[in-house]
Amino acid sequence: MSPRPYVLAETNWKAVQQTDYQVAVLPWGATEAHNYHMPYATDNYQCDYIAAEACRQAWEQGVKAVALPTIPFGVNTGQLDIKLDLNLNPSTQLIILRDLIDVVQRAGISRFVVLNGHGGNDFKQMLRELQPQFPDVFLCLINWFKVEPRDGYFQHPGDHADEMETSVMMHIQPDLVLDLSEAGSGAFKTLKLEGFRKGWAWAQREWSKATVDTGTGNPAEATADKGRRYLEAVTQHVGRFLVELSRHSVDELYG
Ligand SMILES: [Zn+2]
Predict the structure, then answer these.
(1) What global pTM score does this model have?
(2) Which of 45, 121, 129, 171 gives 224 a disulfide partner, CB atoms 3.0 to 4.6 angstroms apart?
(3) How far is the CA of 45 from the centre of ligand 1 (A)?
């Protein structure tokens, strides 16, 4: 396999030195249990794939986008009692993010996208705090799992190790997904007060109280083909976003 020039981990100083990158993409995942049937690094495999594929599409359209390595640890403060879910606190993430944006600014790259792949990560407030510290880099955030509506692709709702995530993994890492007969049903409970149910009140979910098998959402109807179709839509949207973002000057983004 030859190095992909849009994946920093694969490319080299010879190429990097000569390339005037327009946008850097930092994928950010998590390492955590995903029902019984999927690997702990599920979010990281997904982030790796989507970042690389979106940058490839941007590259093909003449935009020099570079996918940085996926940060494999996310906020898992609601899963501290789930064995080997690897928690980073939000304040730790802020420090990591600041150091990496500093590198990007020094490299003269004027656009930076956090590509988030884990529901417990919340970078919005961090980017609010960091933007004034990095006037030469436009900071923005994509939660990839919100890019494309799930209707029309999947039967069962959910948000963790569900039909969507399982289908995606069956497409990109089929050898790491156990037979679906091994999977739990992904049955879950929600906080029962009206405010929580309607969404105007929020509290962290305690995973061991909310779930049985760590999954939320039934994966039984997942297929690799559903995952392929969904990822095609997601990566096209993200790829197009990178192209648009790079073709506008930061001052032209309103209108
Ligand atoms: Zn996940």
Answers:
(1) 0.97
(2) 171
(3) 10
